[in-house]
Amino acid sequence: MKVISTEIEEVKIIKPKVFGDARGFFKETWSRNRYIEAGIELTFVQDNVSSSSKGVLRGLHYQHPQGQAKLISVLRGEVLDVVVDVRVGSPTFGKYVSTILSEDNHRQFYVPIGFAHGFCVLSEMALFSYKCTEFYNAQTEGGVLWNDPDLGIDWPVDNPSLSEKDLNQPRLRDIPKEKLPVYEGAVVDGV
Length: 191
Hints:
This protein is mainly beta. It has a domain at 43-172: Jelly Rolls. The chain is 5% helix and 39% strand. It is built from two helices and 13 strands. It has helices at 32-37, 164-167, and strands at residues 2-5, 12-15, 18-21, 24-27, 46-53, 57-63, 70-76, 78-85, 96-102, 108-111, 115-121, 125-132, 141-143. The strands form three sheets. A six-stranded antiparallel beta sheet has the order 1-2-10-7-12-5, with no helix packed on it. A five-stranded antiparallel beta sheet has the order 9-8-11-6-13, with no helix packed on it. A two-stranded antiparallel sheet has the order 3-4. Strand 3 (18-21) and strand 4 form a beta hairpin. The chain is globular, with a radius of gyration of 16 Å.
């Protein structure tokens, strides 16, 4: 497997080895030892799969204080996947990284704790898979408005299909600091 660095050091794109021929393909999607060797040491407790149609945008979601790291991939179709650093005191606070994930490129996206995550479906349908390091907890769920102008995310749709919850998320600057994760080593007043 190949680990690709991004503009935000902690966020990684992983390209697994894919062995294919006329019959199809085989790939290893998780091997604890290989990921530890690559500097990504995770213990997963929950796997999720979602199905969405073209133009659906889900996100931007995070959990705090019970954070979740995620290892994301697309089993069918294609999505634009986006992560935003929401860690108070981080040198990359409010910055985002995006990548295309698809059944053809086989890429995985590693989303560390402290990042908001979202995706937009580019194909007619997408089957989206993600492994989580913590159980989902509705009491610790937070979100950022998908089109927050301060973030400047270049989404591929102007009028996506959104849930009511995602339509009404706050801008990042309007979220109280105590409702956001803190960057390790940061000195933040009131947090």
